[in-house]
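Researcher: We're reviewing a set of sequences before deciding which ones to prioritize for further study. For each one, I'd like a predicted 3D structure that I can look through quickly. This is GntR family transcriptional regulator. If possible, include the structure in token form so it fits the rest of the review sheet.
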Amino acid sequence: MHSWNDQAPIYQQLADQLAAQLLDGDPPEGEALPSVRTLASRYVINPLTVSRALQALVDEGLLESRRGMGMYVRDGARIRLLRTEREQFLQEEWPRLREKLRRLGLTAKDLKWEDA
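Model: Here's the predicted structure for GntR family transcriptional regulator, in token form for your review sheet.
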């Protein structure tokens, strides 16, 4: 079972989690996502919440609804998502992270980029 937090609405947390999976190529472009019912059961949430999360991904141009067939990953979704995520990281997360590293006195030499 997934644990949700109070930082954002559950539908947004689910949309973010599904987007992360899309970024990892799961499911691949052109393939279908699991049904709303399946996702609702998997994440133990209301199907309306799942529908709202999927609609958010449609609005972002990552998914498309095929009448009677479900939601499918759009061609180019991974590249679009990768660009957006990189931009967000560089604009929002990296400056905070860089400042924290500076405050802690850590340099690039202290960081391990590859798994040991």
